[in-house]
Amino acid sequence: MRQIVTPLLNWYELNKREMPWRDVRDPYLIWISEIMLQQTQVETVRPYFDRFIKLFPDVNTLAFSDQQQVLKAWEGLGYYSRARNLHKASKLVSSEMNGQLPGKFEELLEIPGIGPYTAAAIASIAFNESVPVVDGNVFRVFARLTELEDDISRPQTRKLVFESLKEIIPSENPSDFNQAVMELGALICRPKQPKCDECPVAEYCSGFRQGTFARFPVKRKMKDRPHKEIAVGLCFANGKVLIARRHENQMLAGMWEFPGGKVESGESFTECVKREFMEEVGLEITVTEKLAEVDHAFTHFSITIHAYLCTLISGTAQPLSGSEVRWVLPSELSQYPFPKANQVIINSFLNRTV
């Protein structure tokens, strides 16, 4: 394995992509970028990173910002627990660490939301510690190089790969080595149709020599994702629409939504909306017409949201299942962080109320 280091680094120097967080040593910028890049493509992250850094240029600014500001800046990027943990961690770094991230891998692991991957990235890129980064791209490169038969979803396999790479990562500029392996996985050793003829380490790759690269990495087959039908209502009264904020112990915590929920067995979409309004916000409403239908996929399940226009019959809105409810003007909806799937519903609603 050690023989891959030099050709890999030479290839990286000539082929690395320009990124706003690349070739910087600021631990804060690296931290933000690595959190955003978790399970998210580079091109998706670019505009979010630029906007986020303009709003929160340092850890202290982020720490003293309201969570709603942070979630709004993250809106559309998904996996919102990343933003909440980032905000929580910034408060700890600001108050207990003088606004400075620690420079050691093991110390970084103590910060909420920073796991082995992010800790290794910060430690190696910002502080030059020789600790390997192990993400999906790295797993794929390593598994094909060595014909690794172990299931990469198992913690034991992650540890094996980590320890193996730790033996070969150079003490000088470990940052470039880590980024080179990740870049190789992103550009050359791709999940499908890898460009083996352009790979700088193909001669050292067992999967390439044996023609078995398509088998790797080995990962247990995921179960089919369950699908849920969701019905929500946009209750419009006195020129305002009702929105509700999700509780801190709920999925998508802190985000805003329109009252509604999962359609129960034997229940129609409109019946679901009426029931959910009573259960969630204590309002009796009538459903007037369907507004939109949106399909959305999460990591472990998918949903179809059926959105309806509603009118208020009686009651005073109260947060029975969430943390807050508000009547807002249609023009004010853009000020609140909503999950991505809601943007289609909001646009449809705004087009109807213009």
Features:
354 residues, alpha+beta, Endonuclease III, domain 1, Nucleoside Triphosphate Pyrophosphohydrolase, 2 domains, seven-stranded mixed beta sheet
Question: What can you tell me about this protein's structure?
Answer:
This protein is α+β, with helices and mostly antiparallel strands and 354 residues long. 42% of the residues lie in helices and 15% in strands. A hairpin with a 2-residue loop joins strand 1 (227-237) and strand 2. Helix 2 crosses helix 3 and helix 8 packs across helix 11 (174-187). The longest helix has 16 residues, at 81-96. It is elongated, with a radius of gyration of 24 Å. The mean pLDDT is 94.
- Structural class of the secondary elements? alpha+beta
Q: Which percent range fits the helix content?
A: 40-55%
- How many strand units? 7
Q: What is the CATH architecture descriptor of the largest domain?
A: Orthogonal Bundle
Mean pLDDT across residues: 94
Shape: elongated
N-C termini distance: 63 Å
Fourth-level CATH superfamily of the largest domain: Hypothetical protein, domain 2
The largest pleated sheet is described as: 7 strands, mixed
**CATH C-level name of the largest domain:** Mainly Alpha
Order of helices and strands: HHHHHHHHHHHHEEEEHEEEH
Low-confidence stretches: none
Radius of gyration: 24 Å
**Which fold name is given in CATH as the topology of the largest domain?**
Endonuclease III, domain 1
How much of the sequence lies in strands comes to: 15-25%
* SS summary, helix count: 14
Q: How many discrete structural domains?
A: 2
